[in-house]
Amino acid sequence: MKLQVLKDGQDKIENYSHVVASNNQVDISHVMNNECEHILATDVLDCFTPDGIPELLQALVSKLRLGGEMSVGGTDMRLLSKSIINGSITQEEGSAIISSLYSVSSLQVVGEALEKLGLTVVDTHMNGIHFEVKARRA
C-alpha cells in the first residue's frame, strides 16, 4: 500500500490511498500495521503541535513495512526566521505563514526522531522555508 497524508487543499497523487491531517489529528486506523511500502507526508508536520509530532511519527512508522520508505516534512523554523530577517519574506507574509501553522520544526530534530524510531535517514531536502526527510525502515 502507498499512503499519502495531506493537508487541506493539497494535491492528491494517483495510485496512493489518501488521508487528510488537520487540527493536530489524522485517522490512519484503517491502515494495518506494517502494510505501507511508501508513506508521503511531506507537509503534514505543520498540522501538529510539538507534542503531537512524536505521536504522529510513531503512528506512521508503525504502518511502514520493513524496507518501506517514508517522507515527512514541514516548515523549518530556522529557514522561516532567516527568510523574514533577510527580507525574502515580508513580516506580513511571515505573520500569515506563522498564523496558519500549529508548529514549526527542523530537519535535524525530525531526522533524529525518525532514527530513534528505528528508521535510517536516506535523504534530506530543503526548499524555501520547507524541509523534507526521507527515511527507510530497515
Radius of gyration: 15 Å
Q: Within the largest sheet, what's the order of strands?
A: 2-1-3-4-6-5
> Could you describe the largest sheet, including whether it forms a barrel?
6 strands, mixed
* N- and C-termini, Cα separation: 17 Å
Which class do the helix and strand fractions yield? alpha/beta
Q: What is the overall shape?
A: globular
Order of helices and strands: EEEHEHHHEE
Q: Tally of extended strands? A: 6
Residues in helix, % = 25-40%
Q: pLDDT below 50 for ≥5 consecutive residues: which ranges?
A: none
Your description of this structure?
- With 138 residues, the chain is of the alpha/beta class.
- Helix content is 29%, strand content 32%.
- It is built from 4 helices and 6 strands, in the order βββαβαααββ.
- It has helices spanning 52-63, 77-85, 91-99, 107-116, and strands at residues 2-6, 17-20, 36-41, 64-75, 119-127, 130-137.
- Strands 2-1-3-4-6-5 form a 6-stranded mixed beta sheet.
- Helix 1 (52-63) links the parallel strand 3 (36-41) and strand 4.
- The longest helix is centred in the middle third of the chain and has 12 residues, at 52-63.
